[in-house]
Amino acid sequence: MELMRRWGLAERIRGAGRPGDHPLDIAWVTAVGGHEIHRLDFGTTDTRPAPPCTPEPEQVCPQHWLLPLLAEAVGPGVLPRECRLESFVQDDDQVRATATDLSDGRRLHVNARYLVGCDGAASRVRAALLIAAPTRRRTRVFRNILFRAPRLREQLGPGGAPVYFLTQPPDLRYPLRAMDGRDLYRLTVGDHTSCDALSAVRSAIALETSIEVLSDNVWHLTHRVPERYRQGRVLLAGDAAHTLSPSGGFGMNTGIANAADLGWKPAAELAGWAGPTLLDSYEQERRPVAEHSLAEADGNLRRTLDRRLPTEILLDTAQGARARTELARGIERSGVRREFEVPDMHFGYRYASPVIVPDDVTEYDWCADLVAGGRAPHVWLGPGSSSLDLFGSGFHLVASGSHPDLPGLEAVARAFEVRRVPLGLTRAPAYRSSYALVRPDGHVAWHGAELPVDAGGLVDVVRGGRR
Length: 467
Ligand SMILES: Cc1cc2nc3c(=O)[nH]c(=O)nc-3n(C[C@H](O)[C@H](O)[C@H](O)COP(=O)(O)OP(=O)(O)OC[C@H]3O[C@@H](n4cnc5c(N)ncnc54)[C@H](O)[C@@H]3O)c2cc1C
Hints:
Layout: H1 2-6, H2 10-14, E1 26-29, E2 36-40, H3 63-74, E3 83-90, E4 95-101, E5 107-112, E6 115-117, H4 124-128, E7 140-148, H5 152-156, E8 163-166, E9 175-178, E10 184-190, H6 197-204, E11 212-221, E12 230-231, E13 234-236, H7 251-271, H8 281-306, H9 318-333, H10 337-340, H11 343-347, E14 380-382, E15 385-386, E16 395-399, H12 406-418, E17 423-427, E18 435-438, E19 444-448, H13 455-462
Helix pairs in contact: 7-8
């Protein structure tokens, strides 16, 4: 949501249609409207307290609402939206691709300086580059059953939740999700669940309610991080660059953060100011984040898979109540909150690459501290105005001290200018370090108490070397 704020989309995503009074809780239940075993209370969008570390609290937005907003923001492109990449070849100067316009079958030829394969988990681009992406765990097969239940929200009342973790032996142990907070829901089941979609939904919901099944799709859960993210002028992003278990909700978030790290680098190449190693830093910075997300998501999945569900929890008796209390204790002890509340996963990682000037900070608070390679922290600069609003186009030098070195600042500005590297400059009491150089993606390229003597050397490092 911080990135969406940068791209001018945060408010539109919040206004996309999800009701603000819908509970954000996570509930473990034998069935929706049946026995509740455990609940994490997160309030509602309207009532939760503002988080201290970001101007943009998280927002649930189903993908079928998000994609049209993103497409509209990007605007009409060179290619029609409904087209399929068929093949491509690259040489030292360009990529030549052929595609099919799916509206009329027309063959399209596209020449470009770069190609980014954002074509999902089964990426054809990745396969064509022969980049290995061995799966780390046994592939699991699931079914997603999408259905409408127009009365369910009203029937559940304030006890509703966006995510119900089913704990129904023998088979139902995956989430039933309120997709739009209104009438659209998704039930995930293991593919060995042989019953038809309507029966599966009926056994997941204990209440009498009308249900219309909209789709029943099989999907494969793989755990992959390809060995490389780049070959020549072709790069990988999104699920093409990492597929991981949905447990934790890292997939789309990691993909969007890929775009933020990658986007400005080919743009710098095209504008003529990137050094020779800038584009390589994309893989050096983002691949470790994918590895970390994969491990965390896998841990979350394992917690769910390993949970033993005794049949007694289904009983409407004192014995059943005792079994449910015992299970609730186990759920709590297993640390489930981490699956739903891990701001450090989204904000706390640091990049270490040749285009970051390292510091010697090893222990830090990701929420408040400025560290080399980390996300520049959010600080309110005025009503509704965050330090994050400074970043997004070009580099930005923030001078936080009360007596800035004005000749030094001029020297830095000149060093950027002669290399045609865009730089913004703000004097504001934002950070503890007197000076912070923040990249277009909001990460700290350098910080220090004093400006460097060799300003040109600094610029050459953060732009990826001398040209
Ligand atoms: C059950 C489930 C729940 C999830 N929940 C969350 C969550 O809560 N939070 C979260 O962050 N993530 C979540 N994810 C992960 C998230 O859905 C993915 O990470 C995200 O959709 C990946 O986006 P993408 O654009 O990289 O790939 P995709 O969404 O797979 O899009 C790839 C696109 O490329 C197109 N394409 C493929 N081949 C070609 C070609 N040859 N030519 C042209 N186009 C092509 C496809 O048609 C598709 O439109 C979940 C995933 C699942 C399965």
